[in-house]
Amino acid sequence: MSDTPATVPANAANLPERTKLLVFGLMAFGQFMALLDIQIVAGSLNAIQAGLSAGPDEIAWVQTAYLMAEIVMIPLAAFLSQAVSTRWLFTASAALFTLSSLTCGFAWDIDSMIVFRALQGFVGGAMVPLVFATGFTMFDGPRRALVPAILGVVSTLAPTLGPTVGGLITDIADWRWLFFINVIPGLAIAI
């Protein structure tokens, strides 16, 4: 056995194939969670409105705050990934997305929910472009061509399933579980 520490590949393209697939799969699932949460509350807005005693004009901000914050973060993610690295930004984004999901579940009024949803959208927004960048960096040839195809399916499927999944969760459990379900997968992705 050698006394030298194990070396880490200089870039993602030099990782073993299984590691690349695992990393890409976990990152794609993180993107799926961030995109699913855009619409997961859509089918449950009435339950959230009743639970938080919000008015009809206030409840729309639950969706709007998330989307506005996410749109701000998506272009900012390029700068931040250069400043702190893609790995650390994605990890921080997944961890903070999980934490903000938890806070959304514990929201006590409409104002706290709007703030927590904006935070959730902002930190979750970093995961979306980082998966594309990482996929194109790690893979080449025919596998690189699969990156936009796979992420395109994820990007389409997540918001499409969101209202249905959200409605089912609200019917089976409670609207707060729309956010609590992110905790375990979010921790797994961050780790």
Write up what this structure looks like.
The protein is mainly α and 191 residues long. It contains nine helices and no strands.
Low-confidence stretches: 1-9
Number of helices: 9
| Distance from first to last alpha carbon | 29 Å
How much helix, percentage-wise, in residues? over 70%
Order of helices and strands: HHHHHHHHH
Oligomer, anyone?
A: single chain
Entry summary:
By secondary structure, this protein is mainly alpha-helical. It is 79% helix and 0% strand.
List keywords for this structure.
mainly alpha, single chain, 191 residues
Set down the secondary structure blueprint.
Blueprint: H1 17-39, H2 45-52, H3 56-84, H4 86-105, H5 110-125, H6 127-138, H7 142-172, H8 177-180, H9 183-190
Helix pairs in contact: 1-6, 1-7, 2-3, 3-4, 3-5, 3-6, 4-5, 4-9, 6-7
